[in-house]
């Protein structure tokens, strides 16, 4: 099994406490200035016939798997296999997971978070033009065919295997 390591900066879209975006809010987001720089979800998803339902009744809350990577670095072969199995299970079921004891310093994570916020606050048009971060910007679920498949999020996926020597990530990210 090949496991590729990548950095995924992700921003879920929460406008209100309940995490819903109405059609009216989405259409008006462009007029709110750079404060809100969300993708045009409603325009994309309106291609699919949607039955509007009360989001509170249908919302599911799920805990993402949390995996302690300490088991991978120890000498105990059973612990290594147990940790690997957790990774495979989480990746198969969820597609992603959270990790503990990964070895990345708190300081570096804070710096990365600061840069992530700067990038996500950019206007949608700038993020979507394909030149920013080598075209790694993603939003929504373009192949969605039903309401259950919608993804109300935006993300930058940066494969660490494809980071060029002279990258376009800017001085701030290069220094991290």
UniProtKB/TrEMBL annotation:
- Tell whether Iron is among the UniProt keywords: yes
> Entry's InterPro entries?
DIOX_N, IPNS-like_sf, Iron_ascorbate_oxido_reductase
Keyword list (alphabetical) reads: Iron, Metal-binding
Positions of the Non-haem dioxygenase N-terminal domain: 64-162
Q: Does Iron appear among the keywords?
A: yes
Q: Give the molecular function GO annotations.
A: metal ion binding
Note the Pfam families from the entry: DIOX_N
Please give the coiled-coil regions recorded for this protein: none
What this protein is called in its record is Non-haem dioxygenase N-terminal domain-containing protein
Q: Supply the source organism's classification.
A: Eukaryota, Viridiplantae, Streptophyta, Embryophyta, Tracheophyta
């Amino acid at each position: 099994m090949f496991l590729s390591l990548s950095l995924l900066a992700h921003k879920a879209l929460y406008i209100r406490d309940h995490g819903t975006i109405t059609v009216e809010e989405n259409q008006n987001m462009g007029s709110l200035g750079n404060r809100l720089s969300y993708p045009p979800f409603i325009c994309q998803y309106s291609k699919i016939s949607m039955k509007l339902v009360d989001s509170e009744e249908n919302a599911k809350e799920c805990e993402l798997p949390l995996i302690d990577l300490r088991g991978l670095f120890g000498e105990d072969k059973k612990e290594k296999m147990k940790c690997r199995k957790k990774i495979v299970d989480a990746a198969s079921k969820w597609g992603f997971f959270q990790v503990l004891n990964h070895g990345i310093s708190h300081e570096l994570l804070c710096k990365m978070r600061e840069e992530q916020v700067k990038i996500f606050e950019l206007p949608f048009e700038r993020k979507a033009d394909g030149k920013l971060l080598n075209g790694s910007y993603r939003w929504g679920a373009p192949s969605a065919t039903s309401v259950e498949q919608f993804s109300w999020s935006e993300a930058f996926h940066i494969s660490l295997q494809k980071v060029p020597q002279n990258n376009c990530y800017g001085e701030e990210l290069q220094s991290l």
